[in-house]
Design brief:
Number of helices: 4
Low-confidence stretches: none
Strand content: 5-15%
Structural class: alpha+beta
Shape: globular
Order of helices and strands: HEHHEEH
Number of domains: 1
Strand order of the largest sheet: 1-3-2
Radius of gyration: 11 Å
Largest sheet: 3 strands, antiparallel
Number of strands: 3
């Protein structure tokens, strides 16, 4: 899969775990919680949903940033 081959530039998102929460996603992208949930609900950022909890692999965040840039 191409997304797996993506690498973050040196230092970008280095301090975040490989799978982030919605709160961490908000900090990474400097967005509100409402915006984060909208992006996830509209599947603009791929995610895994376990019950009511979203888990977002960091690679999916980088993929989203690549698509919108």
């Amino acid at each position: 899969m191409e997304a797996m081959a993506m690498k973050a530039p040196e230092g970008v998102f280095r301090d975040y775990p490989d799978v982030v929460s919605v709160d961490e996603l908000c900090r990474m992208l400097n967005i509100s919680t409402a915006t984060a949930y909208r992006l996830l609900k509209e599947q603009k950022i791929d995610s895994l949903r376990i019950g009511h909890v979203y888990k977002i692999p960091k690679l999916y965040v980088m993929k989203y940033l690549h698509l919108v840039s």
